[in-house]
Predict the 3D structure of the following.
Amino acid sequence: MKINFKGILTLFLALIVQLSFAQEKTVSGTVSDESGLPLPGVNILVKGTTNGKQTDIDGKYTIDVNVGDVLVFSYVSFATQSITVGEANTINVTLKEDVSVLDEVVITALGLEKKKDDDLSSTSIVKVDQLKKSGEAGVLQALSGKTSGVNITRNSGDPGAGAYIQIRGQNTILGDSSPLIVVDGAIVSNNSIGGGTGGVVQQSRLNDINQEDIESISVLKGASAAAVYGTGAANGVIVIKTKRGSRGGKRWNIEYKNSFSFDQVNVEWEKQGIYGQGNGGVDHLTGSGLSNTGNTYGGRIDARSGAADVIDTSGAYFEAANGTLYYPVTQRNSTAVYNKANRDAVFKTGVTNENNISFSHSGDDSRTFVSLSNWDQDGIYNGASDYRRTSVRLNSDVDFSDRFTLKLSSTYIDIESNRVQTGSNLNGLYLGYLRTSPDFDIRDYVGTHFDAAGIPTPNSHRGYRQHLGSRRTFNATDGTFSYNSPSYNNPLWTTNKQKNLNDVSRFIIAPEANFKINDNLLLTGRYSMDYYQDNRLSYEPAGSAGDGTNGEYEEDRITESNQNINLFLTGNFDIMDDLRMDFTVGTQFFQRKYKRLSSEESNFTNPDEIFLNGGNAVSTNSNFDDYILKTRKSGAFAVLNFDYKNEFLFELTARGEYLSELPNAGMIFYPSASAGWNFTKYLENSDWFSFGKLRASYGEVGIGPDAYKTDNYLTTGGVGSGWGDGYDGASYGNPLTRASLRGNPDLKEERVKEMEIGFDTRFFDNRLSLSATYYDRTTEDALLELPIPNSTGFDSQVLNAAQISNKGIELDLSGKIINNADLQWNMNISYTKNTSLVEDMAGSAFFGLNGFTSNSSGVAEGQPFGIIRGTRYARDDNGDYILNANGFPTASPTTDFISDPNPDWRGGLGTSVSYKGFTLSAQFETSQGNDVWNGTRGVLTHFGIHPDTAVETVASQDLVTAGGDIIPAGTTFRGIERDFGAGPVAINQDWWQGNGGGFGDVGENFHEDASWTRLREVSLFYTLPRDIVSKIGMTNAEIGVTGRNLVLWTKVEGFDPDNNLTGASKGRGLEYFSNPGTKSFLTTIRLSF
Amino acid sequence: MKKITYLFSFIVLALALACESYTEDLNTDPNQFSSAPPELIIGQAQLGWMQLVTSNNARYAGIFMNHFTGEDRQYVAVNQYSTTASDYDDTWDDSFVDGIAAAQLTKQLASEGGNTILVGISQICEAAIFGEMAALFGDIPFSQANDVENFPEPAYDSQADVLAGIQTLLDQAITNVGSADASLYAGNRLSSGATWAEVAHSLKARYYLIAKDYPNALISARNGIDTPEKSLVTQHTTSSDTENLYYQFMVDERDGYLGATESHLLHLLNGTAARVIATPGDADRLDFYFTPYSDGTGHAPNVTDTGVFAETAPMNIISYEEVKLIEAEAANRTGDAGDVTAFNELRGYLASQYGGSFPDTASASASAALLMEIIEEKYITLIGDLQPYHDIRRTANMLNVPPKTGSVIPQRFIYPQVEIDANGNVPSPLPGLFDPTPIN
C-alpha cells in the first residue's frame, strides 16, 4: 500500500516538474488572501535557486525568471504555493490559509497551543471542516472515523441520541469511561444518564455544544498528555476551542449556514408474511386468557378463502377512532398481509433544518464572536420523535493593556426533545412493531372498547395481542380503574400516545484573565461553571403495556454543575545556550454537584385526560425519590519542557491532589515523562524527507471511585424479582436494610500507567505524513464491585482489585496526492488496533456491565473487556451435543463466555478531490471482528416472525419434535429436519419456542460476527467563484450536498451494528429491539459576508 | 535568578492552596442512613421471607410439580424442565441478602437493646428462610453465613445440619417470643391470629416433616396453628407492587407466561385424573383455582377478583391447612390414631370453605391408603405453595404426579450462578436438577 502510494506521488511530481525550454522574461502580479486582501511581505523564490523577491505593501511583485521555472510563494500561516512559469507574464496568486500539517498546532490539556512538531504525545487534531461536512447532529458522532484511537458507537438513530466514546481501550469497570472534556478551559460534563436495556435513547451532554462554534478539536489519547489533570483524565482528554474574533483582517465577518437533512431508517428487519397469528398451525381466533396469542404460528395466510372474516357481533367490540368496528373473529378468511402497511405506518422520512449565524468583530483592543444556532430535527417515526437545540454563544477578548487581557467564553443551550421507548421494554417501539403478526393491521390503534354489557373504555389501546383493545373495570372499593393492556404496545401507541419529553437548559461560562508579568512570564487565572438542568417527563396513558397498565407518570429533574478554578504560571528561560526551558505550574480546584429528584405516579385516578403533572393518583401510588452528590478535588501541577537545540525535547509533568471520595487515601501523586528526538536535520538533504521525530513517554493518570463507597450504610428496603414482581418497601412500612454493597474504607484511586512510543514523519515536501504510536497501558487497582457470595449477606464489595491492560497501535497516514492551484486530491487513512485484557479480577468470575441475565456484557479474568457471557448447549468431551430423550440438545447448566464485542481493528479512509470550486469528499469506516448478541433475531424466531421460521418440510420419516410430539413420515410441517446426533428430528415451533429460540435457556446461536464497513459520508460542495460573490457583497459562498451513512456492508441482518442497545454504558455488543439507525441526505449552504 | 524565585514561590503557594481541607468531610452519603432501630429492620427480613415463598420459586415449583404450565417465552423452557444456574440468583439474593442479613441484624440490635420478643421474631424469620433454602437446595451455608469479616466464602453445612440447626433456633425463638401475638412487628406485611410461638411450632413441624422426623413433626404440629384464622398470610392491596405476586406476575408483568393448561392439578380437579378420595366439592374448588381461556384452548390460574390469586388475595406463609395435614401425615406414619381426625377436620373445613362436598375418609388410621389421601389433599389444597413440591420429592412421588417431560420431576433447585462464581465452597461436582437432595 505504502509503496503504491509513493509510486503515484513520484509520478505526479514528475508531471509537475516537467522540463521546458529556458526562456528569460519578467513576471509580475499580485498576491492576495482568499478574501482578496493583498498580502505584503510574501516570499517568492525561484525553486532550486537563490533568486527571490518579496511583495510590496500592495501585495505586488516583479521577478525575472525563465519559462519552466517554478515560483514558490510562501508566507507565514499560509499554505506555500508553487506555480510553474508559462507563457503568461502576469501571475496573480491567491494564498490559502494554512490548513496543512506544516504549522499544525495542537492544544494541550490546559488549552495552550503547541506546535504539533514539538508535541511529544500522540495527540491528534480533528479537522473541523471534515466535522462540519459529516451531517451528524452531535459532535461525538461527527468524530467517528476522523482519527485513530477513537471509537464512537451510536446509541441509535433517534433524534438527539448520544454516543459512546472510547479512546484507546476501556480502562475502568466502575468509573466514568468518557474522556475528560475541556471547552475553552472549562471542564464540562459529557454525562449520559440512563442507558440500560430499556427506556428511551439517552443524549450525551457533549453533543449540546454547537458544532459550528468549534474552531478546533484536539484529542489527547495518551496518559502523559493528560497527566496534568490527574484523576479523571485516564480516558484521555478532548480539548475543544471555540471560535473567537481574530486579530487583524476584516473588522466584521458574518457567516450564515443553512442545512436541510432528510433521514431514513438505514437497515430494517425482514418479517415473514406467510403465516398468521396463531399456534401449532391453527389460526388464533377469539383470544385466550387475557389477550390474543403473541405467536405467529397460525395457518398459511394464502390458504384462507379470501372471504370476509366470520365475526361474532354478540358481545364486546372495538370502535376505532375513524368509526371502524372490530368484533371477535371466529373464522379467519382474510388473506391480507399488513407487513408493508404496518411498516409505512411506523416510518417516515425525518427532516432536519439547521440554521446558524455568527458575527465576529475585530477591534483595536477587543475581539468578539457571537453566534446563534438552531437545530430542528423531526425523527423518522410517525409520531412524536424530535430534537430541537437552540444555542447562543458570546466569546469576547479585551486587552486592557499590553499586559492584561480578559477573555470570556460563554454559551447557553436550550434543548427540547420528544423521545421514543426502545429496547427490552413492553412499551418499546420495535418490540411491539416487530412482534406484531403479519395478518394484523396496526393502524387502528386507538378507539373505544365496549364490553359485552356495552360499557365503554375510552382511549382503548388496540394491539395484536388485544384485537378488541384494552378494557377497564372500576374497582368501587378503592375507587380506581383497572386496565388490561395488549401486552406489547402497538408501535403507533408508543409514538403517538406516550410522551417522553426532555428539556435541557445549560450554560457554560468561562472567564479567563491573563497577566503578562514580563516578556516570558504569564499568569493565567480561569474560572468555569458548567451548569445544566435536564428535566425529563414520561407519560404512559392507562392501557399501555408494562408498568403503565393503569397509567404512569414520571418526572425527573437532574441538575449537574461542574466548577473549576485554575491558576497557573507559564514561562520560559534559557538555562544555557541551546537549552531552553518552558514551564507551567499551577493549581486546580474542582467541584461537582449533582442532584436528581424523581417523582412517579401510577394508577391514574382520572385516566381520561392527558395530564402531565402530579396529583392524578392516590398517595400510595405517588412516590418521589432523591439523590444528591457533591465531590471535590484539589490539586497542584507542574509541567516542565526542555528543548535542546530544537533536536532533543523533554517533558516532565507532576501532579499531586486530594479527592473527597477518598478521605483516607492522602495525597495522590501522578508523575509522567516524555522525550523526543527531532532527527529532521540529519536527512535535510534528502529530497523525499521533510520531517521526522521519534517520541516516547510514560505517564500515570487516575480514575476516582464513585462517592460514598468507603462506608456501610442502611438503605430503604423492598424486594423484587428479575421478572418484575415484588414487594415495594415504601408500601410495606418502609423497612430499612443493610445496603447490599459492602463499603471499603481503604479505597484508593485506580491508576492507569501507560508507556507510549511513536514517530511523526512527513515526506515529499510535507505532502505525505505518517504517524504511528504503540501504547501499552495498564489499569492497576481497578475498582470492582466484586460480587461476593450472597451467603455472606452482601451482593458485592468495592475493592481496588482488578487489573486491566490495553495494548494497541495507531497509524495515521495522510497525503496530498495532487496539489496544484486547480486540482487537489487528499487522502487520509487511520488504523487502530487495541487489544484489551482483564488480567486480574481478584478471583471473581464475572462482573456484569450491562445486558440481561441470560446474555450480559461484562468483565472476567483472562477475557477481553466487555466479553459477552451466555449459555451454550451442553456438550460432551468430544464437543458433541448432550441430547435429551427426544434427540434435542440441552442447555448447559452454567454460563460461558461466548463472544467479544471489541473490534480486532478499526480503520477509516477519507478522501477529497477539489477541482476549481468543487470538492468531492468521502469517508469510509470499518470495524472488524466485533461480535454482537443478536437478541432480536432470537426472539423473532421464538414468535415465528423471523423468515427462517417460514419454511415447510415434508417429513422424511417419523420425526420427534422438541415437545415430544411425533410428525408422521410424509407429513408437511412448518419447520425443517435436523440431525443433532441421534437421527433426524423436527425443528418446529416446539424447538423455536424452547432452547432453539430467543427465550430458551441457550444464547449461543444468536451470537454473531458484527463486522461492518460503511460509506460514512460522501459530499459534494461547490464554492462560488470569488469574483461573482464579491459582486453581491459576499466574501464566500458555498453550497453542498452530503449523503450520510448511505452504504453499509455487514453480515448481520436487521440492524446497524454501529448502534448499541445500552447506549453510552460500558456494556457493549447487545442488540434487543433497539431503535434503528438512520441514513441521511443533506443540503448545505454557507454564506460569508 | 529572579525568575526562579518567582517560580518557586508560586509552586509553594500552589501546594499550600491545594490543601486537603477543601476535600475533607464530604464522603458521608446523604442518600442513605448510617443506623436504624431493629424495629424497622425486621420488616425487610419479612419481605425477603415473603418473596422466597411467594415469588418465582413458588411458580417454578408449581410448574415442576405440574400444578401449573409454563406457556410463554422463558417459561416454555421451564415447562420442559430446562433451567440454568442464573435462574436462581434472585432466590439467593432475596434469602440471604434481604432475608437472613436483615433478620440477623435485627436479632443483634434487638439483643443489644434488650428487646427479647423481637429477638425471637427475627429468629423465626431466620429459621424459616434457612429451612426453606435447605429444603430446596440441600446443603447451604448456615453456620458461616452472613459473617463476611470471618467467612468471605462461607462453607456449606449439610442439609441435615441446617434442618437440625433451625430447630434449635426455633426453640430459642419460642422462649424469646413468650406469648406475643403474631401481629406484633408484622406491620402491614403479614397477618395471623396466632401467637408467634404457635407460628414457630408450626414451622418446627414443617421442617421436622421435611427431615422425615415424623414423631417430632407430630408433637410440633399439635402445638402449632390450629384454626384457619391463625394461618400466617401475606397482606396485599391494589397499589403497585403490593398486589398478590401471582397476580403481579400474570397480569402486570408477564402476561401469558404462567397457565395451567392440562396440568395435573387441573386434571385432578376436573376429573380427568381420578382422585384417591372422591371429592365432589372439587368442582367448586376448580372454579376458584382456574379460569378457562375464552376459546377453550386451555386454563390459567384464577387471578380474577374471586380467584385464588386475586389482586389482593393473601398468600400462605404457613397455613392451618398445612399444619393440619402435617399432623395427619405424621400421625399416620407414627401409628397415632389422630390421623383420621386431623384429616377429616381439614376436609370439613374445606367443605365449609367451598360449600361443596368433601367427604370424610373411609380409610383406616395408619393405613397406606389414608397416607395417599393426605398427601394428595395437601398437593391439591396448597396451591401456589412450595410445600407440596417438598412432599413429592420426600415421598419419591408416591402420588405418581406425571412429570411435564421425561419420567422424573426435578429433585431440587440448582445452585445459583452468583455462588458458583464467587464461593469456592459451593458443592462440587454441582448437583443437577434431577439429583435428589441428601435427605431425600
